[in-house]
Amino acid sequence: MDEPQDVTTRTSTVDVWTDALAQSTGSPGGGAGTGVMLAVAASLASMVAGYTEAEGSRRAEVDAVRARARSLRETALRLADDDASASRAFGAAFRLEPGPGRDQAIHRASVDAARASAVLGEHAMDAIDDLAWLAAHGNRALIADVVVAFGALRAAVAGARTNVSFDLASLRSAGKSLEEVRDLHPDLWRAVEQLERALGRIDRLTADVDGRAAPTGSV
Fold this sequence. Notes:
With 219 residues, the chain is mostly helical. The protein has helices spanning 14-22, 30-50, 56-94, 100-126, 128-137, 143-169, 178-184, 186-213. Helix content is 77%, strand content 0%.
């Protein structure tokens, strides 16, 4: 198998990529997995939109949803590979000898990793409206696929939220308090809060369609 740093979502089979994920290297790691989950959500959204028949203005809406989903799949896979690269820098910073250089490297790597996760989270949140639209107007025979997409999207949002939060907290290893971290990076701090709210919205949307998607579960 290729070395882990050469394994990418674009050039590897699912088997090879998940084997690299299974290794104790951290690259790819949870952040890259978050990107792949977002790509799964986008792929399912594209599939459901493709099976949805519509006419007139509704047809234009379906086509727009599908186009965004297909674009998001590409973006998500690129971000997954970007995160794998960021993970290598993150790990390298913590392996440095104690001292100012290590503190600076940890700060830089932590902020870079947090920003990468925040960008991925933004894309994930943008996809909620399209999945909500498909839940309401998509092919009803594929509502279970919409719920699976919501599950993958929730994993992506939860992963982005947790990674941003964890990376920010890692700045304490460089001598910062959480209050100082919040003051230094208010945009990233807000991103965590926004992602938490997005999780609640996904849960509500999923609950609203669960009766249609899994009717035997309500008996």
